[in-house]
Amino acid sequence: MKLDLILRVATKLLCPFILLFALYVQFHGDYGPGGGFQAGVIAAAMVILYAITYGLEPAKRAVPPAIAQAMIPLGVLIFAGTGVATMLLGDNFLAYNALDHHSPVHGQHLGILLVELGVLVTVAGTMVAVFYAFAGRGR
Amino acid sequence: MNSQLPALQIVLPLLGAVLCAVLRKGNLAWGVALVTSLAMPVISGLMLQDVLASGPISYAMGGWAPPFGIEYRVDAASGFLLLLISLIGAVIMPYARLSIAAEIAEQDVPWFYTMYLLCLAGLLGIAITGDAFNAFVFLEISSLSTYAMIAMGKDRRALLASYQYLIMGTIGATFFVAGVGLLYSMTGSLNFVDVADRLAEVGTSRPILAALGLITVGMSLKLALFPLHVWLPNAYAFAPSVATAFLAATATKVAVYLMLRFMFSIFGVSTTLANLPIGEIFVTLALAAMFGASIVAIFQENVKRMLAYSSVAQIGYITLGIGIANQAGLTGGIVHLFNHAIMKAALFMVLGAVVYRIGSVKIDALAGIGRRMPITMGAFVIAGLSIIGTPGTAGFISKWYLAVGAFEKGWWWLVFLLVTSSLLSVIYIGRVIEVTWFRPLSKEGEKASETPLSMLIPTLILVAATIYFGIDTSLTAGIASKAADALLAGLR
Amino acid sequence: MAVIESIIQHYNHWIMIFLMVSGLYIVVNRGNMVKKLVGLSLFQTSVYLIYITPGKILGGTPPILDDAFTVYSNPLPHVLILTAIVVGVATLALGLALVVRINEAYGSIEEDELFANGEDGT
Questions:
Q1: Does A112 touch chain B (CB under 8 A)?
Q2: What is the rounded distance in angstroms from the CA atom of residue B251 to the CA atom of residue B258?
């Protein structure tokens, strides 16, 4: 791997801000454009950018493939778990109103937050896992 | 809790799939898949009972009332299909453990069960949903997991078959979603019932007919209607045996259901059949499938591939029922959908057992093994007789209804063609029976012995079912006739 | 004149049809498996436009209720197509993964070469 100082420094500087932006998109999804899917892709893009500049091995040390792969079912579990929770609280699947007894609006907020968190985890995990799977082939 | 059954039907296999992916141990994953698959027929059975007693069930996903939210809707037709899919899934699972362990690399086994459960969730989802776009999403869930399952086959040609299916299947699904898009821009709704209502106001315009055409072609690709079937033989021949048995029994049937749903319930019989020559096209293509695919089947060396071509031919009978489009004909098509699923699953499971014992399904390798594994090959004979349509088996019932439907339309020539095409299946099934029972034992056959019980019993259950449903038709034909009534009446 | 006018008024449909047919043409005509997938993606993308273009209402605002506005764009097509894009990405990823495996197993991704030596079954 050729050392390219500007790229390496710029990547290192950018990474935390990319992640921050991902989290902003995630949590601002309640009020404006955004949400778990976009945030997941942005977060995964950070890992991919890191892997492109520093090589696959350092990236795999930072985000081990096992974690990326575990994130895929974990996110779905969070999503489906929210749905099951609403069912256990006596309402329909994913009917967030049931999540808060006092105010359905709060229930909706909480539900969306949890579901989007699940989406974030799954999407980020999937993107990184797909990248690792393709990048790691043929070496 | 009863009111939550429609959601559980989908959520349980989905959660099971996730659990399999988390556990990553072959036997644990199998255990999860077994428990979920066995729970499925209980749920769908309870729902069907409800539907037959008190009419369609509607379930508002997320508490958003239809037509704005996604509605899960179970009526006689979808309840019947749900029961079929979940029964097949439940019968195959006990069988799967040994077969999968023998045919798939160890590290892939948990992923296979993940894909299997995802596919199950997708297929059940198509049957249960009352929302057109949701149906597309479930269609793709089941298709993507199917491609992955096929690619897990041992032979490297499985990869090519999977790729071919991916291209064809995606084109089909995209056609479907394009049709739904046109419908949506014309009616402003995606809910089946709501779209049907609004179509009555919109009337028949060119975009509506284009939508009907796109959806019909898209689904014809997925259900392997005759000239669009080229993906099917290789996909079935090279997929792992369990996947083949499951897909042959369910995947194409679900596509048939979705097409029926759109053609009859949403567009309505009058729009569908009066404005486009769909009935005539279907009858022609069905006949081409019944003869063309059966003749090709006769010349196959690989028995699994032969049965795959036979599937194309049998799908011809189902679409023939749609083309006839009167009560008896449609009942015949729907009954055949059920009966064919059972007998084809049984046949592919027998071949899975043969692969397990001798590692090949080439017709020469099968010579004489009937004497080594008599019960298994006996099962093949009975299920084969049902494919032919021998009286006393399930296959006869469906052909009987089709013939009645053809008579009512005054198409007596069709009855003649039905019988002739059955003779072709006598040739290809008979050839396998002759080779397996009356030829001297092949070299590969030396190591054959009776199938292990965990694989034999599920196969025998399905074979028993082909006989049972050939004699007592109150369940199959009864519900199918109700479903045909419901489809012909439309949702309005 | 009326014909030209109707063509211009429905220009989004013409773009859609052009993309759809060229995508399908690539899928059918190309032997290279990666190029086929590119065509497939193009084909899928054209269908996204069927949903997106009628969703835009001239002069409409984002669908956030406010007394100052009366015309809103329809948000549903965007959500639907976001889902469809995800499905398309998953299909593309799976297709490319299959192509990688095929290349490892056969050493080629040209259909002519693969099917030349009787690999299509039998």
A1: no
A2: 11
